[in-house]
Each structure stands twice: as structure tokens, then as C-alpha cells.
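Everyone, study these two lines:
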Amino acid sequence: MAQEPPAGRRRSPGFTAVLTLIGLFLLYLAVPSVGPAVRAARADGIPGTFTATRLDCVEHPGHEACTWSGDFRSDDGTVLRAGVALYGADRDYLRTGQRTRAVDVGRPSRVYGPGGSMEWVFTALLLLAGLGLLAFLYVRPLLRLAAARPRASAPVSGPHPGAEARSR
């Protein structure tokens, strides 16, 4: 766990501002992806068929990353999407013209296999990193501020001043 700076030292306001912006940016990236990532993990969406039309590969030092693009058609024929990628399909997974089961979870540029995906892991890590960074910066100071606040005193029970005079 991170330690608070010694009593005489405080964090630079600029440092705090930069870390706050980084934390907020991580949340900006993660929060909109939570719903689609969970739906993709569960393969919760519109079932249909993906037809492979094009294989795009990029070579990196030590490995190759390939993506199949093609057309998605829902089982009931109401959803037709052209030019979408099938998440997780590498070079050997399909051939041009081949069809496979897929699920449309609402992502604009891709569909998923019926087994779902592990995208939620990266989304969860981004979310935790953003929240952790903001907690590191603000939880302790807020707790210290709350502890230093004077508490409202409880009402004193018993007779009120002047109560004796009124009762006579």
C-alpha cells in the first residue's frame, strides 16, 4: 500500500493534477466498454452467421496478428452487417467464403464467436487502474478531512432552562 508523504511534505499540485487526469482518462476509456465487454464475455446478443470475405494480417517481431472480416446476418434475417471483424479468428480459423456461428453484441465493428471473449479482462484492468489511481490520490485526504470536521453535538436531555418557572 502506498504511504502518505511525511508530515512536512505534500504532493505537488501539478503531480496530483496529472495523476487525476490519467485516472479520469482510464475511466473514460473503460466505463463505456463495460456493458459491451460483459455482453461479449457471455456471448449475449443477436445470434447469427458470419461469412468470411477478407483476411488482414499484420506482422510484428516474433508473431503475426490476423483478423477475418466479412458479413454478419442474424438468424431471423433482420440484422445484416457488412465489413465487420470476427473477434478472435486468426489465419487458420476460417477460409474465404466459409461461414461460422457468431453473436452481435452491439459493437460497431465486430462480432463474436458463440464462446464469447476475454475482452472483459482488459476493461476490468483499465477500470481498476483508474479507480485505484483516484483512490490513492483522494481517499486518505477525504477521510482525514471528515475526521477533522466538528461533529454536531447531541441534544441535551433534561429540563430546559426556564422550565421550572413555567411549571409553577
Remarks:
- The first helix runs from residue 13 to 30.
- The chain has a mean pLDDT of 86.
